[in-house]
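note to self — DONT lose this again. spent like an hour looking for the file last time. sequence + predicted structure for the chain T wanted, 172 res
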Amino acid sequence: MSYLISVGLTLGLVLTAWLIYKLEGIREEKIRRNKASIVLSLLCDELKLTRQRLIDSKKHGYSRPFTLAFRDTAWKAFSDGGQLALIQDLALLTAIAEAYYYISQLTLLENRYFGVCHRPPNTWTRQVRSRHIGYFNMLYPEAKCNIEKAIANIDRLPTGEAPKQGTGRPRC
């Protein structure tokens, strides 16, 4: 009889430990999803702001050339901090990375243009300014398309849920 009681207690303890292990895993996955949702929401907000600044700079015909800085601070912070690892959907992460690649190219162009604009005007600076505006016009369609694609991929995800492999992400 005592043999059956000890077997029962052992099985009960093993089952309890297994159940606690499973519940802890579910809780950790929920926390990871919430963090991924926050990361994606912040990236989406930054992409929307950058898209609007890109459209505004094109619309104004450079009367205020490159005064609207393109933003990539959230991307850099999450990249450096390792939070991008929370996004398990590689297609989504690739779309966001491509958008930020174009943003980095526009930022580089913007910084160079700004440096040229603050030199005394001469033939050389006018040519360089013209060339920078030409580069911007070449980058604009691809940059806008990639930013909109990234935003659409983020918006396609169900609200409140972080992406799993091959799925979507929360609405921003």
